[in-house]
Amino acid sequence: MPQIIDLNHSEDPRDIIHRAVQALAEGKLVGFASETNYIVAAYSLQPEAVQKLAACSHPEHPPARTLALKSPLEALDYVRNPGKIGEKLIRRCWPGPVTLLFPVSEDSGILDSLPPEVRQLIIVNGELPCRVVGEEVLQAVQRLLPAPLIISSDFPPNGTPARTAAELANSQSPEISQSPEIDLIIDHGHCRYSSTSTIVRINDLHWEILHEGVVNERTVRRLLGDVYLFVCTGNTCRSPMAEALFRKLVADKLGCSEEELTEKGFVSVSAGLAAYPGSGPSPEAVEVLKLQGIDLSPHESQPLTPRLLSQADYVFT
């Protein structure tokens, strides 16, 4: 049985983080909480440890090994040309419970910096599964390692996703004689979601969901829409007015309601360079748009942030 360390009752969580880093660097397998389930991780520069990961996943729920990246931007180091669809899902799904499968070759990006045995283990049928886990403990460990981790799927050998550290420890099927020894599990309580990660295959201008988990198909379609961002200073008059007029004009052009625009690939949002969160629209803006049949009164201002900018496809100032 692996050793389970309760991070929530630790005097200094940094010691546990460093211990996990050392174990991974030594070629051991370590269990962590993700947003969805407890998964097993190996260090990508330790081929023997990566080989063991296949036995930590259920054979009917591939991929058995996934490249766990530190950030969405790091994906571009390993996937040379993710395409328009890939770029949008990278920006909008990560960090989060979504695994993206990209078509790659073994010399794509800096993949050739990984041991050849590891590349052969994680690239299956010309596809590289990638994920950015939004769990703080795993992210803290990754920041201390120069190379990425390789993680198991959400489904352990017994086929039942592990929601707790104890369930992961008991998940290795006794019927599998080569079931590997997980050396250490970091217990960080229950996982955020009671489902598994969604797996999306991306191929040029096409995509398909191989496994629907936390993020459903409808949400993926919304994430692939174009985001139109309108920016002014306070986000109480000019930019919310522009956003509201944009929604009305596009809805009229398409012959649909404004509520249906998201389903049709149009997402609009506004923000301010010096906006105070939660402020209402100016009375003058509400009055002017009322003449156009638009109710601006529910609007609440928000400041412009780097993340909001990164999500936008078009920015109007």
Task: Summarize this entry quickly.
This protein has 317 residues and is α/β, with parallel strands linked by helices. The protein has 2 domains: 3-216, Alpha-Beta Complex (DHBP synthase), CATH 3.90.870.10; 225-316, Response regulator (Rossmann fold, 3-Layer(aba) Sandwich).
Describe it for me?
This protein is α/β, with parallel strands linked by helices. The protein has two domains: 3-216, DHBP synthase; 225-316, Response regulator (Rossmann fold, 3-Layer(aba) Sandwich). Helix content is 29%, strand content 20%. The protein contains eleven helices and 13 strands. The strands form two sheets. Strands 1-8-2-3-7-4-6-5-9-10 form a ten-stranded mixed β-sheet, sandwiched between helices. It has a three-stranded parallel β-sheet with strand order 12-11-13.
DSSP helix fraction: 25-40%
- Rg result: 23 Å
Overall pLDDT level: 92
- Total count of strands: 13
Largest sheet, spatial ordering of strands:
1-8-2-3-7-4-6-5-9-10
Q: Per DSSP, what share of the residues sits in E-state strands of 2 or more residues? A: 15-25%
Note the overall shape.
elongated
Q: What's the total helix number?
A: 11
Question: What is the fold-level CATH name, i.e. the topology of the largest domain?
Answer: DHBP synthase
State the secondary-structure class. Answer: alpha/beta
The biggest sheet amounts to: 10 strands, mixed
The first-to-last residue Cα distance is 59 Å
Going by CATH, the architecture of the largest domain would be Alpha-Beta Complex
How many distinct domains? 2
CATH class of the largest domain: Alpha Beta
Look at the structure and name the CATH superfamily of the largest domain: DHBP synthase
